[in-house]
Structure formats: C-alpha cells, structure tokens
Amino acid sequence: MARGHQKLQSQQKNAKKQAEMKKAKGHDQKTAAKAVLVFTCAVRRSQMSDPKTFKQHFESKHPKSPLPPELEGVEA
Description:
The protein is mostly helical. It is built from three helices and two strands. Residues 1-32, 49-76 are annotated as: Disordered.
C-alpha cells in the first residue's frame, strides 16, 4: 500500500505546485485585451473595442458599403 500513499502525496504536491504557478503567473494582459475587442469589421477583419469607434472606422474606411445592422442606432 506504500504506492497508494506515494501516489496521493505526489498528487497533492503537484496540485500545490500548479496552484503556485498559477498565482505567480498573475494577470495576463494579452487575454484581457482580447476579451475587450468585441466588434469585428467584416471587410478588414480588424477588431475594435466599442461601437462608436467601429462606426467611425466603418464610415471613414468603407463609405460605399452598407452599415452593419449592429451600428444602426449608434451615434458617432
């Protein structure tokens, strides 16, 4: 039964090590920045964070294209 006890100790040690590594990693700026980019231009596939910026981009870069439905009520 020594192996069973060793296995349990090894699992606990590994869980503790993983928790410490997760704490040490801290806040990841790259994933946080990606979470903010929710609007994507259908023409260029560029991403924007808010609808106002997205509308300004669409009006200046794609004036001949029809406005996407998600930008209908947005004021620029």
